[in-house]
Amino acid sequence: MSRIPRIVPWTSTEEYQQVYEWLYAESPRMQELGVKRVKAWASRGKVPHAVTCTAAFVEVMLRDQHSTEKISLNELCLLYSMVFTRFVNGMVDPAQQGTFALSIATLAAKLDLPLWFVELRHAATHEALPSLQLLRRGSRQAIKWLDDNYWASQKPLIDTQINDIRLLIANYKDLRKQYLKVFLDLKSKETPRLASLLNNKLVKQIQKLTRPDMLGDLLIPVLLESGFLVPKGKRKRATLPDLLLSEELLQLWLPILRSFDETWTNFGSELMQIMLEKLDADFEDEATTSTSYMLTIVAWIHQILKIHLAKKSTSFGDIDLENVLEFCLRRPNSFTYIILEFLTERDVELRSSVVPFLKYIDKTLSLDHDIPKISDEEFRKEILALETQLSEIIIRLKEEKLSDTSNELDERSTSSGWTLYDATSWVPCPIGCLPNGQLPCLDLPLELDEARKLPHF
Fold first, then answer.
1. Phi then psi for 226, rounded to 5 degrees?
2. Cα angle vertex 150, ends 149, 155, to 5°?
3. For residue 371, what is the DSSP state?
4. Contact, 244 vs 40, CB < 8 A?
5. Please, is 105 exposed, middle or buried when counting C-beta atoms within 10 Å of its C-beta (0-12, 13-18, 19+)?
6. How far is CA 116 from the centre of its chain?
7. DSSP characters for 242-272?
8. CA 183 to CA 179: how far, in whole Å?
9. What is the pLDDT along the chain (457 residues), one digit of tens a residue?
10. pTM of the predicted model, to two decimals?
11. Could you tell me where the DSSP H helices lie in 93-191?
12. CB-CB contact of 13 with 158 (8 Å)
């Protein structure tokens, strides 16, 4: 009986791991990216409570430490208290499964949740709001607890499976090379039966490590690593204008790709989707963002689309050309433009409807190329110059503000200086009141209630 696929809002394990790295990064910009991505996940489906809480804690900390808006102490305490209360409640509620309700402290102990988390949650819910320093400390400890008890426990299993698959693929690569070398030395043709035996052995071993719904998380990312479908040596990679894969590369990998496609009906569509996403990826490893790597991915997309479009071919039949076309039109860049041209060259009707988009994309890309490029050193110099100018402007504004303040004080001192109260109009009044009998306004100015001016412990 086939297992029901587990539906998750992230597209791959790589994206899941990337969001973890963003949330726990030191850069506020990276953290903000992680928070936004978790919000995008929430719009797709159910997000694990631990992931939601991690993003919520990070978002409140960003507002606390890096917000340019004026935030009062009370507002910050309320924000931290709400996130912390939801964190504890969401952790202990699923464990409340008995006939009789257990205390939150008992459930927290079963989850290895620190008892003072429960006490802090109780104070924030039923008593006076805890101090901001205590809430900040609790939030930092909560994020660390989530890292140790949730995020860290997700990584080893996935990493172990990926490492095992990587080892199998590497062994296949070595055996396949030796196998092809023997036939080359003997100057004889490859025997399909022997090739299928090698492929079937690898497929059976990988089947034990993954499921059809996990191909995009485990198998395909390994295939797209530098050194497998894309050779490490740049001379062996595809180049413009032909974008042709070497015969050696095709003989090495095309048979096993066909075997994967025969074993898993969704392999072709998963492989195509992830390769397309590689062409539009941000914040990836440098080895997978070089131009030669991207062009080789484009060449593999061309090769797979040729097989799909062939009349008598049965391989990669589940690929949806409309999805490929839509992706390339929605994510226009130099690489997806090449794929659009490839598709339109093989379909006259498609070309007539897509030509206006191709012209627009071509014009946009040409404008991008016209923008002058500067080196990192020139960019740093430009930033330093702008920072210097900004500092000078800030100093000038402060001097002008001080000058205006001193002038205002001078005017006040000359126009309304200290004078002796008229004894004839003097009326006795209680201590603390003004001579007219009114109480003075002793409210603390809002400027002194800014949380940003308090030190972070």
1. -65, 125
2. 110
3. S
4. no
5. middle
6. 32
7. T-PPPHHHHHHHHHHHHHHHHH-TTHHHHHH
8. 7
9. 334 456 788 877 778 888 999 999 989 999 999 999 999 999 888 899 999 999 999 999 999 988 878 888 899 999 999 999 999 999 888 877 767 778 888 888 888 888 889 999 999 999 889 999 999 999 999 999 999 888 887 766 677 888 889 999 999 898 888 888 877 666 666 566 666 777 788 888 888 888 787 788 789 999 999 999 999 988 899 998 889 999 999 999 998 999 899 888 889 999 999 999 888 865 445 556 788 999 999 999 999 999 998 877 788 988 999 899 989 888 888 899 999 989 988 887 888 888 888 888 887 777 555 445 556 677 777 788 888 888 888 888 877 777 666 665 555 555 555 677 777 777 777 777 776 667 776 665 655 555 444 555 4
10. 0.55
11. 104-110, 115-126, 132-146, 152-186
12. yes
DSSP H helical segments within 286-375, as ranges? 291-309, 321-330, 334-345, 348-370
Query: Is the Cα torsion angle 332, 217, 286, 233 positive or negative in sign?
Result: negative
DSSP secondary structure code for residue 281 in this structure:
-
- Residue at 322: amino acid letter: E
Q: Which residue in this structure is represented by tokens 């499976």?
A: 161
Residue 310, SS3?
coil
Distance (Å) of CA 17 to CA 21, 191, 198, 243, 443:
6, 42, 33, 32, 50
397 CB contacts (<8 Å, ≥6 apart)? none
Q: What is the DSSP letter of 287?
A: G
C-beta atoms surrounding 29 within 10 Å: 10
Cα 325–chain centre separation: 25
Closest to 84 measured CA to CA, from 28, 148, 47, 130: 130
Q: Are 84 and 118 within 8 A, CB to CB?
A: no
N- to C-terminal Cα distance for the chain? 56
Tell me how far CA of residue 298 lies from CA of 303, 342, 354, 431, in angstroms: 9, 10, 19, 85
Per the CB < 8 A criterion, the answer to whether 337 and 361 are in contact is yes
Phi, psi of 230 (to 5 degrees): -105, 110
Name the packing angle between helices 49-66 and 28-44 (round to 10°).
Answer: 140
201 is written with which tokens? 């052995």
